[in-house]
Queue: 4 jobs
Job 1
Amino acid sequence: MSLTVSPELLHAAESGPIADEEFVACVRESLPYAWQTVSRVAAELSSSDAEFADNEIPPPGEEERGQLLRALASDAIRSSLERHFGVKLAFQNCHRVAAFRPAAVDSDTYRRFISVRGQLLNQSPELRNC
């Protein structure tokens, strides 16, 4: 299961649309490692002039790795995180999360990061089973 959904939030979802803030709070509580990682790269980006900020530190364990994979593999979770933090997220391997400024999506840097070549160059033997 990706998220721990309270009975109240589930009831609200059964009744109609959910506000982003409610969903984001559920993500924050359910996937704390993923939340911390995305929060950190988004904060690093906002406090710099860099085109992007990224996390190259592998998760400490399988639970954390699973949280990151679930957060970034879900369109709903990923897009809500992007809206919340005002960034475009990019993902390589099982841990390399990058936050780009939305305007950078058309940049060469972004295109290199999400390219097949970028993916291949970011491989290493210790990450094969991630």
Note: The first strand starts at residue 52 and ends at 55.
Job 2
Amino acid sequence: MTLLAVERIKLFTTRSPWWCTLIALGVTVGFAALMAGTAEAEVPMTVSASQFGYGFGMVVVMVMAALAVTTEYRFSTIRATFQAIPNRTAALVAKTVVVSLLAGVIGLAAAFGSWGIATAMSPGDLAINTAFEWRAVAGVGLVYAIAAVIAVSVGILVRHSAGAISLLLIYTNLVENLITLIPTIGPKIHQWLPFNLAHHFLTGNPDPTGRGDQYGPGLSDATVGPWPALAIFAGFGLVMLAISLVVANRRDA
């Protein structure tokens, strides 16, 4: 508990978490307002469509998570941390837990904030009734939390803010989509990529209202069920964290 308290204090005494939280909330809720404001009778607003901007907020949260680690390497405060806590694994796991919990809270706030503003702006009924709708909204918190674990792991491995952020942005926005261009095997590989599986967890069942994909989060091509998709995504995050911990213990701070 002491390690968690220390990491919480270190995290919230820097500006980046506050700015990233505001930006993530602003982007996701802003997209929900945009979707609700442009909804028409032929294309009604839905609960799923209110989460159109969750991916943009997730990228911001991952930047925050990476900075939580790389900033310490940049200013060499990580050396003081490892001197005070010789067990590097415990120190880095505590940091990961704190950052992941914050990311999950941001995800829940962003998701329910997006749903709330869409409900206020839309004349239709956007009540959350089905398991799919609950997963599409509340599931954002789980996805953000796991994405933060991946981002922290990348930060531990790379140690440089620009490099870690560049890798995260390039992978989440380009690499997974570009893999589908590989002839024959590309689409098959894409079905099992981590962020595609996370998207499948949120959009795994077709929108029951029949709203077109172009008016909300597009459907994933993953073939597993939504919850197994989340389990694989979480497993990828844990593997990344384990690799980063092994590397951190073997090299100099």
Note: The longest helix spans residues 88-121.
Job 3
Amino acid sequence: MTRVAFYAPMKSPNSPVPSGDREMARNLMAAIGAGGARVELVSELRIYDKAGDAETQAALRNAASAEAQRLVEELPPDFDLWVTYHNYYKAPDLIGPEVCRARGLPYVQLESTRATSRLTGPWAGFAQSAHDACDAARVIFYHTANDLITLERERFGDQALVHLSPFLPTSELPPASDCEGPMLTAGMMREGDKLRSYQIIAETLPHLTGDWRLEIAGDGPARQKVEALMARFGGRVRFLGQLDREALQAAYAGASFFLWPGVNEAFGMVYLEAQAAGLPVVAQDRPGVRDVLLPGHYPAAEEGPAALARAIELLRNDADLRRARGAKARAYIAGRHLIASATRTFWDAVGPLLEVRT
């Protein structure tokens, strides 16, 4: 059996804190393992500097050096491959390349980014390390067309860049929604881009007419701010809180369509989940987001809340259109964004590296 070492410098797949990164890391481990391999998390050392602090980076480098040495000495000899998820300038892989050089392991990366603009400034050293780690990878899998731009520009040697479509960790679709009920939003409630998406929704809702209702699934440190944004709408907006997988699936099944602007989303797992349940989506046309949505017209961000409201009204006023778009979205997910497709893409690209090694 092929044995794969897996590492995620930004956040361990075992982290107790929910996030898209944690979910995607878990999904990737499942997809790789679905090909018959044994996938093992070999380190939970977090290499992440949010603020660009030199002392923090120095301490993390020391910890990474010790961890790399431990793995060089202790990693069992029957590992065949090392996979690192989400190497970038705030969370460079300071371990994988060193271990792979010492142990002669093929090294590949998933969802890595290159940021040459960060090679100066407070993250300069970490950005260079992330860049060097990218250079060490024989294969880099990317999720969106936006990620490919810098990866291709800075490609190292004959390194392979392979598109791995974002995917759901399942081989079957959930039950389809009948596209009735309230609008549904689902998103973490935290400062920054997530809160900005909620602000856009709050700016959009006053443009709607008639008897509309919105349910919001999610929680987080900015919940009070989100509640304050929505207070003016009274009982028309209902907060569902943080939902487990089963409850969230029920929310999708009971909604008429899914609403999330998608400010700076890498791609957004919620879009995949909503469309898998047969919901049409109202979102803004943004990089990353457009890579996972059923092809069609989505208002540009610069068109503002009024354009987003028009897209909402179009679906609110036409049940047949909702169901038709929802059915197409569901078929789109089935054909491109389930685990079997990801497993096949991964092993088609990585298999030759193992053949050369043996």
Note: The first strand starts at residue 3 and ends at 7.
Job 4
Amino acid sequence: MALTPAETAPAQPPPEWEAAAVVDARDLPCPQPLLALRRALGAYEAGTLLCVLATDEASWRDFHSFAALSGRTLLRAERRNDTFLYWLYAGK
């Protein structure tokens, strides 16, 4: 039985969530959190893990839509109390 590439390739370590560069977009109204993300994607070195903080309720929909439409992977999204956290990798 042959192994698939996923079985033979070394596993990629999981991201270090707490080591992410923080983009603080709290208290910014829609669409400002998404615009802060877009600026950060180009400002940081490709491959840098970013964590965007937002308090705008619409950011949940915006970030998921952005990921789907742009082809970028939204690595993780969660809500902690009144703050939404979104993790993506920087780069163009």
Note: The chain is about 30% helix and 25% strand.
